[in-house]
Amino acid sequence: MATIGITIPETVWSARSERFYTQVLHGLEDTAVSQGHTVLSHVAGSPGEEIETVRRWAERDMVDLLILKDLLDDDDRLQQAHTLDLPFVVIGDQRQGEFSAVTVDNASTMQRVLEDLHGRGHRAIGHVGGPSHLLHSRWRCEAYREFVHARGLPTLFAEGDYGADSGTAATQALLADPQRPTVIVYDNDAMAIAGAHWAAAAGLRVPEDLSIVAWDDSPACQTHEPPLAVLEHHPHQLGVDLARTAQTLLAAPGTPVRVAHEVPRLIPRGTLSTLDTLAP
User: Fold this and answer.
1) Whose CA, among 18, 115, 146, 156, lies 20 to 30 Å from 140?
2) 165 neighbors 141 (Cβ within 8 angstroms)
3) Roughly how many angstroms between the first and final C-alpha of the chain, as a whole number?
4) pLDDT tens digits for range 8-61
5) Which pLDDT tens digit goes with each residue over 94-149?
6) At what angle do helices 20-34 and 235-251 cross, to 10 degrees?
7) Cα torsion through 166, 168, 172, 174, rounded to 10
8) What is the value of pTM for the model shown?
């Protein structure tokens, strides 16, 4: 029996309504326990606390494998895992490293969403991204900029921090642009819901005046009036895949294990309109 350790930054945890990573943890725990393992989780208040927690776990032989997420450039956690001789599995993008990981393709996902919106007649597409120091946020932003540039569309981008307040501020900024977006894609559900609330308070009709798409789904998106258009992610399945990848790595530590998720499709729901403009 092994113990799998996972730390989650408090800022990311609290910002995501309905706790996306709670669903990931449920999938991880359900599968790990069924395999005879245990999961040790910790919500860290800072990057320093996250690193200190892992160090303490290693010194006390409390964990046998780590789950890492939201990697940065030259991430200290990777070096720490190597120094402590702890195997690890990363929740990351398909272009990240050669280590064991459960991967998504952020660029292709953004490309697919934008193609769908463009096909629905939208020519002023806004994007509220997550923090630029996070690699997955950066890659989504790059894919967005490449898409609109290739089609001669306006670049309507604002950066948020995954929290509701930043979603409100970003929405205000984008809607103040002379080329006001007809649709905004938000990097998570909390920012999207806040943006929808602000747009309604400003007298805009959703989706008649402004369409809204959230990168993450949640019960809050589903019960919103109207229900938010979202990407069809499966966080519980992500947790299941993490547990299975960890099990394989523990059985054969020297062989990296890579599991790729399918590119999610767009679920239109009530906050997404189709415009009369025909795609060329």
Assistant:
1) 18
2) no
3) 58
4) 877 665 555 446 778 888 999 999 999 999 999 988 888 788 899 999 999 999
5) 888 778 999 989 999 999 999 999 999 999 999 999 998 888 899 999 999 999 99
6) 40
7) 60
8) 0.86
Closest residue by Cα to residue 94 from 263, 236, 209: 263
Nearest-5° Cα angle at 77, 71 to 82: 125
Q: Residue-wise over 227-256: b if at least 16 C-beta within 10 A, else e?
A: bbbbbebbbbebbbbbbbbbbbbbeeeeeb
d(CA 112, CA 232): 12
8 pairs with which residues across the strands?
43
Backbone phi, psi, residue 225, to 5°: -115, 110
Task: Give all strands of the β-sheet with 101-104 in edge-to-edge order.
Answer: 38-44, 3-9, 65-69, 88-93, 101-104, 258-260
Whether the link from the prior residue into 207 is cis, omega within 30° of 0, is: yes
In this structure, are residues 248 and 2 in contact, taking their beta carbons and an 8 Å threshold? no
